[in-house]
Amino acid sequence: MLIHRYRSLAATLAAALLTALPAHASRQDLVGLINAYRAAPQHCGGERVAPLPPLEAPAAMARVRIGAGTFLEHALERAGYPVEHAEAVYLSNVDDAAAAMTLLRQNFCEKLLSTDFAAAGTVRTGDDWVVLFARPLHEVPLPAPEVLDAQVLAAVNAARAQARRCGDQQFHAAPPLRWNAALTQAALAHSSDMATHRYFSHQQKDGSVVDDRATRAGYAWTRIGENIAAGQKSVAEAVAGWLDSPGHCANIMNPGFDEMGLAYAVNPERGRVYWTQVLGRRR
Fold it and tell me: The whole model's pTM is what?
């Protein structure tokens, strides 16, 4: 979440700036002016910019209530518009949409032309404005739990089938892993706990770690390891992220492991996905 504040120029200077706007601009809503600018931006920061598609203007964004210490994502969620990311610009002492647009164009053209957003909205209180930019939350295309094991094993074993460098460590190709239900149970317990309580750590709030969770799930281990991730929207994305991280990659490539389980859980409020992979070798 990012918030930008901007206090308007003196009235005489603001009036001078407005002369560059079309005469009909003051009658348009601010999101309409933003979209007109995106359709023909010409220049921003000294660079010529190609036209961009318009931003949506969902009604829920006009219902957002923002106070001191408010998190934009939470405020938008409460208003009925859950988002992956949001930013806001505050304008003070601005008479109308045309004056607001002038200030935005002069000072925040990069934000107006960002491809990171798909929607915009405004909340006005007197001559104070909050201009919101957001990327809506999309449904996560996750595999059903009953087919998760096949997808994960295919992705992980394909990685283990090739020699690989994980940071400073070089690994030979390793034998394929087998799926284990107890390790999957331990993985689900941790993903569910992280999703429910909205934290990201190998250690749960009660102090337990992967060793404890595997034992509680009935897995008698001689070697145990764990990878976690948050925010990835598919098995492929989660595994790719682990392979790009030296420590996680080393867990996946470790020939001392011969079984694994994996599970995900989704936070019901924010839709964030939490992944846990547990790797082990039994006694």
Answer: 0.58
